[in-house]
Amino acid sequence: DVKSQDSADGSTGWADIAGAAFSQVTNAGASAQIVKFSASAVRRYIRAVATIAGTTPLFASAVSFIGKKQIVP
Fold first, then answer.
1. DSSP E strands, the chain
2. Is the entire prediction scored with pTM above 0.90?
3. Which of 32, 45, 16, 61 minimizes the C-alpha distance to 3?
4. Degrees (nearest 5) of the Cα angle 7, 12, 13?
5. Residue 48 and residue 22: Cα distance in Å, rounded?
């Protein structure tokens, strides 16, 4: 399971971002997923949190956050 969280200061107060969780992957096959959320709806710092399970879990994974700066007049 992988979910996205945000925080105002990057140290405390981490909270899940609504609608920004990835679908669970349960087999050894490859999986590529895209999750979109509005940057204006989150606080300054974001991170991905992964939870793995199983008797001998081994997952190669990567998460990238890409944003587009918007200037509001």
1. 2-7, 15-21, 45-50
2. no
3. 16
4. 60
5. 10
Output the six-digit token pair for 35: 């999750």
Angle at 60 between CA 65 and CA 38, to 5 degrees: 20
pLDDT in tens, 25-58: 777 667 788 888 888 889 999 999 988 888 888 7
φ/ψ of 67, rounded to 5, equals: -125, 160
Contact 62, 27 (CB under 8 A): no
Please give the pLDDT value at position 15: 96
State the Rg of the chain over Cα: 14
Categorise residue 11: left if φ over 0, alpha if ψ from -120 to 50, beta otherwise. Answer: alpha
Mean pLDDT of 6-22: 94
